[in-house]
Amino acid sequence: MGTIAVLGAGKIGEALLSGLLSGGRSAEDLLFTERHPERAAELESRYGITNVTIEEAAARADLLVIAVKPQDIDPVLAELAPLLRPSSLVVSLCAGLPTSLFERRLPPNTPVVRVMPNTPMLVGEAMSAVSPGSHATREHVQTVTELLSCVGKVVEVPESQQDAVTALSGSGPAYFFYLVEAMIDAGILLGLPRAVAERLIVQSAVGAAKMLDEGAGHPVLLREAVTSPGGTTINAIRELENHGVRAALLAAIEAARDRSVELGRAQQQD
Ligand SMILES: NC(=O)C1=CN([C@@H]2O[C@H](COP(=O)(O)OP(=O)(O)OC[C@H]3O[C@@H](n4cnc5c(N)ncnc54)[C@H](O)[C@@H]3O)[C@@H](O)[C@H]2O)C=CC1
Ligand SMILES: O=C(O)[C@@H]1CCC=N1
Hints:
Elements: E1 4-7, H1 11-22, E2 30-33, H2 37-47, E3 50-51, H3 54-60, E4 63-66, H4 73-80, E5 89-92, H5 99-105, E6 112-116, E7 126-132, H6 138-149, E8 152-156, H7 162-170, H8 172-189, H9 194-213, H10 219-226, H11 233-242, H12 245-266
Parallel strand pairs: 1-2, 1-4, 2-3, 4-5, 5-6, 7-8
Antiparallel strand pairs: 6-7
Helix pairs in contact: 7-12, 8-9
């Protein structure tokens, strides 16, 4: 696959670089650009990877991963367009931005693959969804899939589903963290020491995730197995239903999808 450059080394850019290193990729094959010098220095010393200018990234990298915020895409593409080599593959991690936007602003026939990853990439457990743009071949998709397989699971979806994917698995870890945080608060309310509450909830989350991952059963059946007739769990479930938690999740994820669509539209005003 050659050299990979990450343009914009923030939270997800760092997660990718760190995940690739843990997955066995050599630091010499990885480059990054970063507009904040202190951040660049921090990453260079933490991972031993090289901070470069966008010119160097374009000249040296075979695969360029764009990991800036959607709102910051304009200057990156303006700078990159005249420098990009015809053989380079461009991968966008930007929420909401369609491949057509990149194709319009980069040289003709530039292969672009849109990816929606998530931060568990840091621990090799990302969920990434890939969609090829109109000039990306099966080989390009395969290259990106192999790259992301080093840091987690990968699925291919039609690009029309990427806004939904962004709302579901792109943002998904945040919903689980929010739930864990709220459950730890409940432990505090019940008088448990914080460290004990944290341990109880984190291990419950790990155990539940492992059961789901290992195919121990459908989530409904797994929940039913915990919910004893006349027991404790059903009292909690009744409160969750009374407070509309299921409806809140549907509305929340729909709102995230709508924001992804909006981010794409906002950057298409050219
Ligand atoms: N944080 C997450 O969980 C996920 C984020 N994404 C996408 O990844 C992208 C980055 O998100 P985050 O990492 O959360 O944002 P972030 O703000 O942490 O990182 C963006 C980085 O890009 C740098 N940057 C901006 N313009 C630059 C330029 N012209 N040249 C060099 N560096 C530049 C910023 O200084 C910053 O460090 C976004 O498009 C987001 O939609 C996708 C999936 C998950
Ligand atoms: O919140 C965001 O916009 C990014 C995209 C998916 C997860 N984080």
